[in-house]
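Notes taken during the Thursday session

The instructor put the following on the board and asked us to keep it in front of us for the whole hour. The protein is Thioredoxin. We were told not to look anything up and to reason only from what is written here. First, the residues (108 in total):
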Amino acid sequence: MSNAKAVTDDTFQSEVIDSEKPVIVDFWAEWCGPCRKLGPILDDISVQYADKVQVVKVDVDENPAVAAEYGITSIPAVFLFANGELKNTVIGAKPKPFFEQEFADYLK
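Then, after some discussion, the predicted structure tokens were revealed:
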């Protein structure tokens, strides 16, 4: 089970867009094998960089409005938001060093 906070259609605005910290959003689904592999990687990032970023999860099956708003057609999809804006997108399960490189500006 993930340490990441679950965010819903109703809480996305307050938890992600209005966040003072950058937020890494993991769009996932229970039935998605690669999503389950990615969970522990993002959990590691959330612990290691807790003072820099927040990591949250959005179950696309339970929260179709947010998934549709951001055009999620493939999962896992990992989006980084900062200052209320989408800054970076990674599609697919990648190793931790890949995310650390992609999101480096927000993990310093």
